[in-house]
Design brief:
By secondary structure, the protein is an alpha+beta fold. The protein contains four helices and three strands. Strand 2 and strand 3 form a beta hairpin. The protein starts with 5 loop residues before the first helix and ends with a helix.
């Protein structure tokens, strides 16, 4: 079994990042017609990120549930509330919640 060169690994990671972003954009478009297909796109994007050891961008992490990995749409299958400096995302599919701090965004607005 051959090992890939460092240069080809870097190229593969760039391609993986682009594909992950496009899969999540497609999940957004497809969700209205078929939410199971949107969940499948999330599954494929996560699998690709793990295979190529690529970190999901923070803005994309908030688009899916970290427990059941379903695509989240606020008001449809997700409830978003602010509480004690945290944004609380509540998934209506699995009844779990995720918390994200928003102090950085708040401090930028004050300056």
């Amino acid at each position: 079994m051959k090992s890939r060169s460092r240069k080809s690994q870097i190229e593969a990671r760039k391609i993986a990042k682009d594909r992950i972003r496009s899969l999540l954009e497609n999940a957004d478009d497809v969700f209205k017609e078929d939410n199971k297909l949107a969940d499948r796109y999330i599954h494929l994007a996560r699998k690709m990120a793990m295979k190529h050891n690529v970190r999901m961008p923070a803005d994309l992490k908030r688009k899916f549930c970290s427990h059941c990995y379903s695509y989240l749409r606020p008001g449809i299958n997700c409830r978003i509330r602010s509480n004690d400096g945290m944004m609380v995302y509540y998934c209506l599919n699995c009844k779990k919640f995720m918390r994200f701090p928003y102090l950085k965004e708040k401090s930028k607005q004050n300056n």
